[in-house]
Write a structure and sequence with these properties.
Layout: H1 4-25, H2 29-32, H3 38-48, H4 61-76, E1 80-81, E2 87-94, E3 97-108, E4 113-123, E5 128-130, E6 133-135, H5 138-157, E7 162-169, H6 177-184, E8 193-199, E9 209-213, H7 219-227, E10 235-238, H8 255-260, E11 265-269, H9 288-306
Parallel strand pairs: 4-7, 4-8, 8-11, 9-10
Antiparallel strand pairs: 1-3, 2-3, 3-7, 5-6, 9-11
Helix pairs in contact: 3-5
């Protein structure tokens, strides 16, 4: 039989090991920046917004090239496909024209809540070629696509607690068609999707500010944002939700499709800039240092929310 003092020492040792493990599990915002390649983050934006992809308009050769590029990166990052070959095909008509679109869907299984899903999304399509000019869409939304690939790289080292679906939506610019199709054909039960985190235009802002829409009516998400230790000089702002006199972004991107189904969402985006939906939305006009901070802090916020049992 162990002496009382020995038992106390063993208990203290166990507490020390447990506390150390808990500290190791918590990753600071600064540490997150070292868990994915920031050079790759910028590289993907530069490639996807190059003239080779011809503005990535749904159904064009450029869009197919973008699809193949994203799928190849998911395979390299060992992200499992949610559907065969990652591809969820769909068709629709817009302005008396028929289109064929393709959503790209990857899956990372959760460690603690595998039957509950967080959908992280961005759209990979853009405006294509108009009047002989290529609309490359660097900020809109090659920036969101590359941020999702950074998430995939991060998940290689840190498995999420909830299962995560990485959804690269097509045809957002044609009326949220890809995300509309997805929420009607979700592969996993709709009620098991607990949150959509959508990124659309996240790579440029003169004030180092990024808006989050969708948090005001959810205390858990609101508290996570307010209590997050963000990077120095960077700020999350909650708004554009129809309650602050600003433009209402509730249906401005693919998160709107989730909202229509009653699924909570957090939308991350900057306010419109001079190159929005213009052929000048090129890689040279994004703000690389701001963009790095954005991705770093969104991943950090994800870890805070993922720790909750949604």
């Amino acid at each position: 039989m162990k002496s009382f003092s020995t038992i106390i020492m063993l208990l203290l040792l166990g507490c020390s090991i447990s506390c150390t493990a808990q500290k190791k599990e918590a990753i600071s915002t600064t540490e997150i920046a070292f868990l994915y390649n920031t050079d790759s983050l910028l590289h993907h934006v530069r490639i996807l917004s190059s003239d080779v992809f011809e503005g990535r308009r749904t159904g064009t050769t450029g869009a197919l090239k973008a699809k193949d590029y994203i799928v190849s990166k998911l395979q390299k990052l060992q992200v499992k496909p949610l559907v065969e070959n990652y591809e969820q095909s769909f068709s629709f008509s817009s302005r008396k024209k028929d289109y064929q679109g393709v959503n790209i869907l990857g899956l990372i299984s959760g460690s603690d809540y595998p039957e509950k899903y967080i959908v992280i999304s961005a759209h990979y399509d853009h405006e294509g070629i108009k009047n002989g000019q290529i609309y490359n869409g660097a900020d809109d939304d090659a920036s969101g696509v590359s941020a999702m690939l950074a998430f995939a790289e991060y998940f290689q080292k840190h498995q999420p607690k909830h299962s995560v679906i990485l959804a690269f939506f097509d045809a957002e610019e044609l009326g949220l068609q890809g995300s509309r199709y997805y929420v009607d054909n979700t592969i996993v039960p709709l009620e098991s999707i607990k949150l959509n985190m959508n990124m659309d235009m996240v790579s440029r802002n003169d004030k180092n500010e990024l808006y989050i829409t969708g948090a005001r009516d959810n205390e858990a998400f609101k508290n996570a944002i307010e209590n997050q230790d963000t990077s120095e000089g960077f700020k999350f702002l909650m708004g554009h939700d129809g309650k602050d006199g600003k433009q209402n972004w509730t249906f401005s991107s693919d998160h709107g499709s989730f909202f229509r189904k009653g699924i909570p969402f957090l939308y991350f985006g900057v306010e419109d800039h001079n190159d929005y939906h213009r052929p000048t939305d090129d890689y040279e006009n994004i703000h690389p240092e701001f963009y790095k901070l954005v991705v770093q802090n969104i991943i950090s916020l994800f870890t805070e929310i993922d720790a909750l049992n949604l």
